[in-house]
Amino acid sequence: MEYLLTIPGTLNNLNDYILADRTNRHKGAKMKANNGDIVAIAIKQCMRGVRIEKPVFMEYLWVEPNKRRDKDNISSFGRKVIQDALVQCGVLKDDGWKYVVGFSDKFDVDKKNPRIEVLIREADG
Fold this sequence. Notes:
Radius of gyration: 14 Å
Mean pLDDT: 95
Low-confidence stretches: none
């Protein structure tokens, strides 16, 4: 079984988060929470009632409005926020090794429709 989660727009990146956290740890925590809220809204729209019991492999497509941000900064903070939100919303039991067997990242540019697409595929075992 597979599920598609689409998050409109972009999330903050790792550099944004590090700067906020260094400025004030509460500012960093608030940024992570705000990004988590954006993801949770998308989860409630795309995956209402979905509860995945099996381990998953996650395929991320990061569609940016331009090529200004580094790929590793986009995906590292984004994956953390998205996986935490999937657990918090009850879609995944946990985001540890037992339940997330792996993930992949692809990147594209679409000035008019930036978004994040996450294909969540139940894995064997």
